[in-house]
Amino acid sequence: KAGVTQTPRYLIKTRGQQVTLSCSPISGHRSVSWYQQTPGQGLQFLFEYFSETQRNKGNFPGRFSGRQFSNSRSEMNVSTLELGDSALYLCASSWGQGGETFGSGTRLTVV
Amino acid sequence: AQSVTQPDIHITVSEGASLELRCNYSYGATPYLFWYVQSPGQGLQLLLKYFSGDTLVQGIKGFEAEFKRSQSSFNLRKPSVHWSDAAEYFCAVASRNTGNQFYFGTGTSLTVIP
């Protein structure tokens, strides 16, 4: 079966712009989580959506937001981009709490 | 506060040698425990997980991990390392009650020398 698909794979944006990242979970998975990975901070939890509702939220500013659609696909939006937002953004999906399946990520570079 | 500690930032082992990667956690109650592996430029792949029951957990690629409640540890082991095991390894915990919010350790980078 298809894995977790994240698009785009690479993205270059300018400071102050906004960006939207997309994640298509494994078919049947209702939970989608987002993580930010940087060399300095490591892997940090952004938020989790389950059945279109945000179930958990990490400690990130309000510039980071997300949503989930009825087909479980999820988008993450970052507004007013800062240089420090440059990171690998990982999406993960799961059916329950059995351990998440991660996508290959979107590499965002802010210049 | 929840935290996961991986004391070894980088480990180098010879191919065929045994491997142990350490993981300690701080959590209010016994969480779910996981080990993931990440190859350069890739996402994370689940190696194994502990929910309950037998404290010795078998995973993919010949890896195993042992949960020790008294030490709050969940160390990853492999009896004989292959060159393809070179990667970054992450230990993670998640609450049993609040959905899929994972806390990750800082990772251990594994180098395998021939």
What does this structure look like?
The complex is a heterodimer of chains A (111) and B (114). Chain A has no helices and eleven strands. Chain A is mostly beta strands and 111 residues long. In chain A, β5 and β6 form a beta hairpin. Chain A has strands at residues 5-7, 10-13, 19-24, 31-38, 42-50, 53-57, 64-68, 74-78, 87-94, 101-102, 106-110. In chain B, 0% of the residues lie in helices and 52% in strands. Chain B has strands at residues 3-5, 10-14, 19-21, 24-26, 32-38, 44-50, 56-58, 64-68, 73-78, 87-94, 102-104, 108-113. In chain B, β8 (64-68) and β9 (73-78) form a beta hairpin. The chains are: A mainly beta (111), B mainly beta (114). Chains A and B meet through β4, β5, β9 and β10 of A and β5, β6, β10 and β11 of B.
Keywords:
heterodimer; A: 111 residues; mainly beta; four-stranded antiparallel sheet; 0% helix; B: 114 residues; six-stranded mixed sheet
Uncertain segments of chain B? none
Number of β-strand runs of chain B: 12
State the distance separating the first and last CA atoms of chain B.
41 Å
**Strand content bin of chain A:** over 45%
Quote the average pLDDT of chain A. 94
Largest interface: A-B, 25 and 24 residues
Radius of gyration of chain B: 14 Å
Oligomer: heterodimer
Order of helices and strands of chain A: EEEEEEEEEEE
Distance separating the two termini of chain A: 37 Å
Q: How many helical stretches of chain B?
A: 0
Number of DSSP strands of chain A?
11
